[in-house]
């Protein structure tokens, strides 16, 4: 008992010293929080962590930044996709959840990677730790995002060679089965996304069977052509030119391509681009596995015409090819025009527009396809007279569709379509008659002119 009493002053002294140190540390922390900006505090903390890790731990950390050489880091993108897919089964303290479905409030929630949260993964028995970091400093006017992937030092090489390959392949497989597609429009120096809800597929697309087969085969060959394009030294891209009158289904074909490939769409208006530098910056900010859509390319602005004139003067075709080549890999570039004859011949050569697709007026096959979809019938007494008129007059699939949507009753809708086509035929005949009379009158006037001079 005496020894215990003898120790009381010592315990009291230790407790007093601990209290004093704690107060000093709290005061020091308060001063730091008030004086030093958050960025500097985070930097100091990170340095302490790095010093501790290098001296007392046998771990190694891979840093995967979102930006790499002024473009999006595809390894970062692969990690993001991979972790989003596996989050439900991974060990993590919290999750980001959300939904982009405006029409279905009961839609299944999507999972996102939370910031500053450790996510545990395992690869062939190797323990892995993922953490997504985000910071904004004066050096970076935008949000800087980067992943830390930590493993034991002894597994560094295996993770570098095997795990990252597995990660990339898993992400590619996920991207090929995207649930939601987006369409992006460029505004105020950035791409703005919206859910792409055009449900046209090659199954529902009303085009001739041979064209449909050709398109599907070409797209499938392109999607499997990575090794081929690499072996011949060409960018992994495919260019399509869709040309024809308005209303012949160019936009629907674009939607079918996007849904078939599961590619996002970047809708670019060239008229708003001032020079090649701006265009290049826009292109490198788009993702791989996407469609770059440039509609009405014949309607170029003055700036576009100046670019074309300068390229002709400088003979800089290679530079233009380089511009499109900066658009990443596994890209489809689609141009549309109502007037192919107005395009600069340089735009039509292979490498820029590999496949030219003529979207023509309605045919009997397309007419029957539209009737089957909208009226749910494959035969009707009015089919024959309508098909004959379809061959005689120039009518677009859009015009046919508009008439078919007038009524769900096949008799009423087809009768209205027949009357529409007959009116169109009479107008065509009247226009031809007026044109012929004008040509005759012009010829007679020319014949009379020498006599008048005489």
UniProtKB/TrEMBL annotation:
The keyword ATP-binding applies. Its cofactor is Mg(2+). Residues 432-442 have a biased composition (Acidic residues). Residues 236-363 form the AAA+ ATPase domain. Residues 304-323, 428-454 are annotated as: Disordered. It holds the Pfam family AAA_assoc. GO terms for biological process: response to stress. InterPro entries: AAA+_ATPase, AAA_N_dom, At3g28540-like_C, ATPase_AAA_core, ATPase_AAA_CS, Mitochondrial_chaperone_BCS1, P-loop_NTPase. Keywords: ATP-binding, Hydrolase, Magnesium, Nucleotide-binding. GO terms for molecular function: ATP binding; ATP hydrolysis activity. Residues 443-454 have a biased composition (Basic and acidic residues). PANTHER family: BCS1 AAA-TYPE ATPASE. Belongs to the AAA ATPase family. BCS1 subfamily. This is AAA+ ATPase domain-containing protein. It comes from Eutrema salsugineum.
